[in-house]
Amino acid sequence: MPSISGRHFLQIPGPTNVPDRVLRAMDFPTIDHRGPAFSALALEVLTGIKTIFKTSEPVVIYGSSGTGAWEAALVNALSPGDRVLMFETGWFGSLWREMASRLGLQVEFVPGDWRHGVDPSEVEKLLLADTEHGIRAVLVVHNETSTGVTSRIPEIRAAIDRAGHPALFMVDTISSLGSMDYRHDEWGVDVTVGGSQKGLMLPPGLGFNAVSAKAREAAQRSKFGKSYWSWEEIIAANKGGFWPYTPSTNMLYGLREAINMLQEESLDAVFARHARFAEATRRAVKAWGLELLCLEPLEYSNSLTAVLLREHDDADQLRATILENFDMSLGTGLGRLKGRVFRIGHLGDFNALMLAGTLCGVQMGLEMQSIRHGDGVSAALEHLAGTVRRNRTELASVPA
Amino acid sequence: MPSISGRHFLQIPGPTNVPDRVLRAMDFPTIDHRGPAFSALALEVLTGIKTIFKTSEPVVIYGSSGTGAWEAALVNALSPGDRVLMFETGWFGSLWREMASRLGLQVEFVPGDWRHGVDPSEVEKLLLADTEHGIRAVLVVHNETSTGVTSRIPEIRAAIDRAGHPALFMVDTISSLGSMDYRHDEWGVDVTVGGSQKGLMLPPGLGFNAVSAKAREAAQRSKFGKSYWSWEEIIAANKGGFWPYTPSTNMLYGLREAINMLQEESLDAVFARHARFAEATRRAVKAWGLELLCLEPLEYSNSLTAVLLREHDDADQLRATILENFDMSLGTGLGRLKGRVFRIGHLGDFNALMLAGTLCGVQMGLEMQSIRHGDGVSAALEHLAGTVRRNRTELASVPA
Amino acid sequence: MPSISGRHFLQIPGPTNVPDRVLRAMDFPTIDHRGPAFSALALEVLTGIKTIFKTSEPVVIYGSSGTGAWEAALVNALSPGDRVLMFETGWFGSLWREMASRLGLQVEFVPGDWRHGVDPSEVEKLLLADTEHGIRAVLVVHNETSTGVTSRIPEIRAAIDRAGHPALFMVDTISSLGSMDYRHDEWGVDVTVGGSQKGLMLPPGLGFNAVSAKAREAAQRSKFGKSYWSWEEIIAANKGGFWPYTPSTNMLYGLREAINMLQEESLDAVFARHARFAEATRRAVKAWGLELLCLEPLEYSNSLTAVLLREHDDADQLRATILENFDMSLGTGLGRLKGRVFRIGHLGDFNALMLAGTLCGVQMGLEMQSIRHGDGVSAALEHLAGTVRRNRTELASVPA
Amino acid sequence: MPSISGRHFLQIPGPTNVPDRVLRAMDFPTIDHRGPAFSALALEVLTGIKTIFKTSEPVVIYGSSGTGAWEAALVNALSPGDRVLMFETGWFGSLWREMASRLGLQVEFVPGDWRHGVDPSEVEKLLLADTEHGIRAVLVVHNETSTGVTSRIPEIRAAIDRAGHPALFMVDTISSLGSMDYRHDEWGVDVTVGGSQKGLMLPPGLGFNAVSAKAREAAQRSKFGKSYWSWEEIIAANKGGFWPYTPSTNMLYGLREAINMLQEESLDAVFARHARFAEATRRAVKAWGLELLCLEPLEYSNSLTAVLLREHDDADQLRATILENFDMSLGTGLGRLKGRVFRIGHLGDFNALMLAGTLCGVQMGLEMQSIRHGDGVSAALEHLAGTVRRNRTELASVPA
To answer: What is residue C300's DSSP assignment?
Structure first.
């Protein structure tokens, strides 16, 4: 094994590179979770996190993974036997569906090809067909981490509205929040599910539910037995800056710092940065002569790019070569994409030269694996160098 | 407010003082949770944690609080409508019962005075009366964090055995694990519930279930809808050093270091240390002329001591005075003990001079609040100074 | 050996307990010492440190120990063969004299009993006798770390002035700066020597020279060959926020944070805190029936207390017992005080309960060593509890 | 200004990227520098550092910059008025000469073109001419940080030997130690000067002198007044694991960890890694169509590469553009090279993708500054990808 030196390139689409500021913020002694210092911390964090979800409604924070936050969304807002509409956008869409089924929900699962987002017109059609309004919720993954394909949340919201359907709208933003534009209130989402370890730049360990008044009202009628995930006890205790049980104090230290960092940079600048790096990555993929998994440019993800190899090339072998020789982790192909796809995470605490190093690592890996390829690095560098000025101008024109 | 300088005295009975070694171990970059470095970490931690629970069976680790681990125990091993035997040992025993009821279990709740542990003979009597074996589980809190009273787990096990009853035996060790002797296998426990933020010396954020073969077998028949908490997927993924969803990587870094520290000191030495500090604390309480909440010496907790004030003295006012003037957090009286009791945590990463400072802070607080008191500090110092040698001899005679 | 758990009590009179805020501030990546980010840091630190020395003149910061800063003071302001007046206040006063001699200065060394500070009237007398003004400098240690005795700097300044003598006035504040009142400008000091590891709450590694215009003017005539220590190159480079050689960047991160902490608490509150803890310590010593090394109450140190044992008691054995059994480091007796004296540091990032724990450790050590003693802890606690209110009132009356 | 996100690329030739392991090791509380725990630390470090200098003789560690260690070497081994031979290899060679002159040494300064190392045959000639052996020392900078040119130490040693000259041989390895092969004993060096902030991967703040018996013997006759730098007191105190004054404890924590890291990787692997990255960098420079400052391939530095721009291109403007737009620090042209040269540091805790990102940053900067250039990145990637296997084979053939 070549010696390990320097920093690992963690280019999976999450967990992402945790900034030193966040790690150091977490590296302070735990405090009394029932005392005044904790209360001040909690109130600051609970207020700040709303600006990230762009909501004025409560955001419930769990000690859990994003998967836990998925479960929390389901067991609060729904009841066993409820009908819900879900979509086969990829591996995570399928996993969420599987969870829903295990919990006893009746899932209408709209099949997909793992290369497109949810089709708003299909949502409209399906809801219009549901004349008795038996469907309780429409559940969409904003950014499919397994495919690098996004779904157009505002258009889906519009579709639900056009259908005049009362279903709750629940959106998973685990790998988009803090990386791509997202607006819980403006887009009329009832439950937004988030996690700490992607655009929020924290280690894994916190899950989030932003919940609308309509969702909370629905939760009053939920028949799921639950305790840990129950929204209302948490929302009630949060008013005073507390939790009904021991919260993950040190993760909250980190969250405070991460929110500060996002606000210092400004969310608009954060989104512009992700867009620029994603475009550079796509240009590299095209110049390599490889295929983007995502087929619809309107649905390109800015958090990650999934790259489809040619039929006889092995993506996992490529990843192993790159990990072994260049100390870089890339995302694997999940489920039906296994061995065909690798994923490049370009989200979180990231900059142009880290991206350049990442793409160089991929290109050297292609070379070492004898995978036919052009010069993607040059294409990416051209875009990065060419957009420095535009990037600035755009930022300058963003309202403060 | 007097200026804040020096280290806060965090003398609540958890979260406890996180050692620098653990904080620094957590302050490393998050790694790929699907890669070989993670797998090596996970396998080391999953093996090591068994030595703390003293079990050869799987220990399931959740990203959650201890409350989450309570829920996990219930929804895996039981089904809605199951009858369970629970005990009013204090606030946490009552909370666990409340959770069980919310989840749809039928709880037979044995009333208690919050000053004694579970009575093994009563367990035997109740189980003998259950001739049809309708009771599915006996649930006991090993160390009631609200009262400083322990329950005698081996004697309760013996009582269940004498009754010849097949109920599962489930024990909460959240505030005893790593501080007081506990033996999952030898004591015949089916599910042991733990948390990270007490004797394990970590920040809050991890919950544990040690599970016997009998418990796993029972889980096959469980009718609870569940996903996040489900044992079997986790146990299966753990075999390769992974989790079915994103684990709390940085907490696992800390757990590895904490296990190392406990093993370096040796669990026997850790327990002897806790016993010595607890006895010194009790001697201080007696010398102050105050009352121990725990009435049965066999049931004294070595993690914390709950102190009962005289009728007209206000424990919360005392705590506030001490926090304001001496920057020390003490545990509040919970539930029916509110205002009557304060709790001194003396567990985790702790030593004789930290205890001495703690007791001095209490004594000065008593003085400032004009609560009549003798010289508890001197009594404690006498015990601490007098047991240095005995402590060593005892340790020397412990088998390696 | 008893197991090590909890925090070490570092009660030597420096290095002192480095606050977590300072350690974490230092735990950031080193930056380019010729770039704009460094320049901003340096200018902030160079401005801030002046408020600690209470000077408007330059403060030169070295990568060195305090001993290095001693040497810097001598080789900049003086020339080989120069006559200087120095005082046997204790071990450090003697060491500084030895350094001066080695460097080729002619030292008139005024003998002392290691239990008093410098006598201002003797300074006056000696300077008056020097009618030809051959003495180039008067060098005084403000706070003798080996004895816990201070010298009265303003009175010595007045003595020099009364004598009408032009000698430079050079003061070592290594163990007083940031703990006791000190005013470089107002007290007319020409060179103030400081170190990072005491009241400044940093690890060792930075030395300081605050230099008056008169000192800089004298330095123009210095005949010492020197390079690393040379003031003028550093002062010139500092104007732009740089150093002539690579500075100790991470220590400067820590210094910025330490200055912020001192300013947040306010120097007046810092000094009041040290005075209160020192008085509590002295009361403990008296109640133990032991002797303070310092014989003159006007000269008591607020940073540390040196305690003289009775003739046949062994202070180093006491220290070893306390270290072994209670994991506390105390200061040893230096030079002629070896074995007779131990020193308690009560400076830096410190609070009442840390002091209480410290004194309990000493008292238990006395007990274990069978050194006859009364109850010093109670005396200290009485003072600490009794001064909470007064302390606040005093602070309230301090002008902002 | 574009927003700052991700990690800064610190590609100056030192201070270098401090590994997280080293930063975290330094982030522990300071301990008593006169106690047994410190002694154990010091003895471990003092032994370990010898393996890095490849010496069995003492290595003196100072709290200082490398400049301080230069001064220490001079004032210990020499006396005012001594004649020494020094070489104009670049900025640092010139600075060291300036220091020597200021300290009162008589320097014979051999002029150079800043593009070659010291010529061994010239050394021989000059020493042969010194028939009376008036020259007391030959001082050489092993790796000129300002030029990226090394001097061939073993050949210079051989030249001295051929001349039969008794002069001391003193070598500055500040920017080579821990990055390029260096052997204090085998190469017959009398004083080797080092610093912490380059190949040793620490923050700045420690200086080193490895000293031969001959150098120590010479030091007995030194007439320089000195105290802080004096070898013998330090060497004597080091025997017990102590220093005569307060050492930089937390830096020593870091040094222990850095030595461990270098030994884990093995020095041979460390040197091979630096050689590989340096060669990739030189290939990039050539492919850009730019000139290496170093004219002699045998003298190429593996720590850094200095790149000479064409006459009308401005290196400082290029550096500013790169810093502003890509958050990367490069080394400036020093002295006569100002504006003509920029320097790429590729030493310390560094890997192939960090180098790739670095070179991409330079290439984009060239593009933005309209400096004519070819595709250096591709040339570097080709070398990096092509040497993975060779690198392994070479390492495998290295004796353990």
So the answer is: B
Which residue, among B17, B351, B373, would best test binding to C if mutated, counting the most C CBs under 10 Å from its CB? B351
Residues of D with CB under 8 A from a CB of A: 2-7, 9, 17, 27, 265-266, 269-270, 273, 325-328, 349-354, 356-358, 360-361, 363-364, 367-368, 375, 377-378, 381, 384-385, 388, 391-392, 395
Q: Give the mean model confidence (pLDDT) for residues C164-178.
A: 98
CB pairs under 8 A between B and D: 10
For residue range A71-81, list pLDDT tens digits in order: 999 999 999 99
List chain A residues with CB under 8 Å of D358. 353
How far is the C-alpha of A62 from the C-alpha of A244, rounded, in Å?
11
Q: What residue spans of chain A are helical by DSSP H? A: 20-26, 36-53, 66-77, 91-102, 120-129, 153-163, 213-219, 231-238, 249-265, 267-288, 315-326, 352-368, 376-386, 388-396
* Prediction pTM value: 0.96
Helical (H) or strand (E) element with C193: strand C191-195
Q: What is the pLDDT of residue C389?
A: 64
Kindly determine whether residue D325 and residue A395, on different chains, have CB atoms separated by under 8 Å.
no
| Residues A367, D335: Cα–Cα separation, whole Å | 42
Residues of C in contact with D30 (CB under 8 A): 10, 15-18, 197, 203-204
The answer to whether the CB of B219 falls within 8 A of the CB of B200 is no
Using the CB atoms, write b or e for C176-196: b if 16+ within 10 Å.
bbbbbbbebeebbbbbbbbbb
Per-residue pLDDT tens digits of chain B, which is 400 residues long: 334 799 999 999 999 999 999 999 999 999 999 999 999 999 999 999 999 999 999 999 999 999 999 999 999 999 999 999 999 999 999 999 999 999 999 999 999 999 999 999 999 999 999 999 999 999 999 999 999 999 999 999 999 999 999 999 999 999 999 999 999 999 999 999 999 999 999 999 999 999 999 999 999 999 999 999 999 999 999 999 999 999 999 999 999 999 999 999 999 999 999 999 999 999 999 999 999 999 999 999 999 999 999 999 999 999 999 999 999 999 999 999 999 999 999 999 999 999 999 999 999 999 999 999 999 999 999 999 999 965 444 444 444 3
Q: What is the DSSP string of C111-132?
A: ---SSS---HHHHHHHHHH-TT
Query: Cis ω on the peptide bond leading into residue A120 (within 30° of 0)?
Result: no
Nearest to C246 among D15, D18, D102 (CB): D15
Q: Which of C135, C130, C134, C129 is nearest to C86 (CA)?
A: C135
What is the rounded end-to-end Cα distance, in angstroms, of chain A?
A: 50
**Using the beta-carbon criterion (under 8 Å), do D24 and B24 form an inter-chain contact?**
yes
Contacts of A334 by beta carbon, 8 Å cutoff, 6+ apart:
A90, A91, A146
Distance of alpha carbon A75 from alpha carbon B321, whole angstroms: 43
| Residues of B whose CB is below 8 A from C265 | 3-5
Torsion of CA B124, B127, B128, B133, to 10 degrees: -150
CA-to-CA dists, residue A265 to A260, A269, D3, D153, angstroms: 9, 6, 6, 50
- Residue D1 distance to chain A (closest CA, Å): 7
Query: Which of A20, A28, A29 is closest, CB to CB, to C29?
Result: A20
Within a 13 Å sphere around the CA of B388, how many CA atoms are in the beta-carbon half?
Answer: 22
Strands C206-211 and C191-195 come out as antiparallel
